[in-house]
Every structure is written in C-alpha cells, then in structure tokens.
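Appendix B. Chain record.
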Amino acid sequence: MLRSLGKIFAFGMLATVFTLSAAVAAEYVSVVKDGVNLRSAPGTNAEILFQLPLNYPLEVIGKEGQWYKVSDYEGDKGYIQESLVAKTPYVIVKAKECKIYAGPGAKEKVVGNGVKEVILQKVEQKGDWIKVTHPSLTGWVSKSSVWP
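Structure tokens predicted for this chain:
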C-alpha cells in the first residue's frame, strides 16, 4: 500500500512539473500589420473570422505548415500565416481601465491610464509589473491588468 501511494505521489509530481513546463514555455507573437485576417482553418480560402490590428498579441497553440493556430486574450482561436506575425512582445489591456505608473509599483506617480483593448509594447518585467511603451507614454502596469 505504501509503495502504491509513493508511485501515485511521484506520478502526480511529474504531471505537475510537465504542466508547469508547458505554462512557462508558452509562445507569443504579435501581428505585423493592420487588418490581418484570422481564419477558421489554415489556408487563404478558409473563412475569415476577424481582422486583427497591428501589434495584436496572440498565443501560439499549434502549427500546420506555414500557419500558426493561435488564441487571443478572450480565448478566441483561429489561424494566421507565419509571415504575418513577429516575436516582438506586446500586451493588451484586459481590464476595463488600468493605471500606468512611473515605476514598478502602485505607490509610484501615475503617468497615464490604459483602457480595455489598448495594445502596449512590452519593454521589460519586474515581478508582477510590466514596463510598457505607447507612442506618447512609457510606464509600468500591473501584470494582472494586461494579457499575456
């Protein structure tokens, strides 16, 4: 009985390690031009689900030839040509509103505000804070306010 429990525990730990590894290894890309089609299947003849804006961040969840299967911050899925994305890191505001601070912390001076679906370029990350830029603003947002 004790040996069986040990095997179950070891298997559970191994499954946890694989789950954590998969979460850490997530790949994200961003759209390289405005109006890029997200399609229902790989191929230019597939139905267009949405048109995506410049720099829109996506999570890569699979690949078929020259097409990525992707998911966005709302969980919508589709296919996009590999040539239409880059690995430049962008985030999208998922909160209704968020404050942008001068430094990494809520006690820093507020330098701006973000609203839902605004796309920001990710510069760096310190713990739960992400340094972002936008054409007329650089600052820090809480990781909980943006995706990914």
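Further analysis of this model is presented in Appendix C.
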